[in-house]
Design brief:
Layout (H helix, E strand, L loop, with lengths): L26 H4 L4 H27 L7 H33 L4
Helix pairs in contact: 2-3
Length: about 100
């Protein structure tokens, strides 16, 4: 259940918001006051948890003594909970967008 969040190309003529990866800024600067920056930072956090969990699983399976079963299971659960939370937020955003688009004008 490993998910990567790629950066999508912008439409022709569109500019990346200040502070996003497409404009060369940091994610921390983007989240200072924008919703998209906060969402991007949250998704990067989920991706980091998944990467850390996968690395710990790999170490445990290779027999590394510094990676315990308990530590590996906790990392897996943390990444799963974070992914489920991100998925729930995404579903709610899509539902809100659909509701707004279906409103009569």
């Amino acid at each position: 259940m490993d998910v990567r969040f790629p950066s999508f190309p912008l439409p022709p003529g569109a500019q990346a918001p200040a502070g996003t990866a497409a404009s060369g800024g940091t994610a921390r600067a983007a989240s200072a006051g924008s919703f998209s920056g906060a969402l991007n930072e949250a998704l990067q956090g989920v991706s980091k948890l998944q990467d850390d969990s996968a690395a710990l699983q790999r170490r445990f399976l290779m027999g590394d003594d510094s990676a315990s079963l308990e530590q590996t299971m906790m990392a897996m659960q943390k990444s799963q909970v974070a992914f489920q939370a991100a998925l729930t937020v995404r579903n709610r955003l899509v539902a809100a967008y659909t509701d707004i688009m279906n409103m009569p004008v």
